[in-house]
Amino acid sequence: MANFRLHYFSEVLQMNVGVNVIIPENTWGHSLADRPEGYRYPVLWLQSGGGFDYTDWQRYTALELYAAEAGVAVVCSGTYCSGYMDTKHGDFKYFTQLSVETPAVVRHLFPLSEKPEENYIAGFSMGGYGTLKWMLRDPEKFAAFGLFSGIKNVPEMIPEKEDREDPLYMFAAAFGDAKNTLGTEDDVVYMLKKQLAAGKKMPKGYMATGVEDTHYEDNVAFMDKYESMGLKFERVIDHGAHNWEYCNRHVKKFLDWLDIQETFQRDAE
Question: Which Pfam families match (predicted)?
Answer without folding.
Answer: Esterase
